[in-house]
Amino acid sequence: MRYSRYVWFLGLSLFCLITLVTVKTPQTVISALADPHFGDSPQKTIQHFWQLMDHRQTDLARDLLVLTEGSLDQKEFGEWETRLNKDPLLSLQKIVFMNSDSDISQGVVVRVFWTSSIEEVQPVTFSINLKQTENGWRIERLKRMNDVL
Fold this sequence. Notes:
Number of helices: 5
Protein name: DUF3828 domain-containing protein
Oligomer: single chain
Number of strands: 4
Order of helices and strands: HHHHHEEEE
CATH class of the largest domain: Alpha Beta
CATH architecture of the largest domain: Roll
Organism: Desulfosporosinus fructosivorans
Number of domains: 2
Structural class: alpha+beta
Mean pLDDT: 81
Low-confidence stretches: none
Shape: elongated
């Protein structure tokens, strides 16, 4: 009886793997297996980017960016990198997407709330443009907006 339980588990696992490969392209499946944060949506990419920044893993967060060298966007990223490394008490509280899913192709407006034990909550609004690459969604523009929203 115990042997058949393992056979059923193995069969179910193979069925799920075959279904996954037939529904998605092989490159997407391999990318998702190799990088669990390979998302099909821009929201997942943005959330993952800010979580990496919160964990001070800026080198991994930089991999999600496709910014031109010396651009204002890269300068903005550098300022946040410096700010987060300088203040270890600063942590991510929440991320709020300001526009609907239908406006994703034109860019995403995101409000990021930072908190610290010595300061009040700091909301910062960003305009983020993403583009689809063979490695998933990547951020091609990161612009801080005036907090008018």
